[in-house]
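Checklist before submission:
- one chain only
- standard amino acids only
- sequence pasted in full

Submission:
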Amino acid sequence: MKRLASVFFAFGLFMVPDVAAAQGRTLDAFVAEANRIPLNATSALRPSAHRLRGEAERAFRTIGTEIQTARAAGRTPPACPPDRMSLNPQQLLGFLNAIPQDRRQRMSVTDGFRTWMRERYPCPA
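Returned file contents:
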């Protein structure tokens, strides 16, 4: 039992810096790394692609929670996406690249994705 606990502790020590770095990453750094990944089937095997996908999933989960919380409180959510949405990574990356670099340097990954969702899925007035 002690050995299992020490393995989890050691695993946690190695994971904390990666998670902390991902949370502090700017949208500009995310986009720069995403632009370096080739758009082919084998790129999904790259560790950097896996890391970017994880960051994107965390951002979408955060935004989804914000939308649910806003709806439950009777407020207008930041975006009104359908229950099931399709995602074209090239289109999303094109949108994020179109944001001026000085603005991307001040935005988090979640802020960038929130902006994309707000534009793609606006709430009715």
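Reviewer check: Residues 1-22 have pLDDT under 50 and may be disordered.
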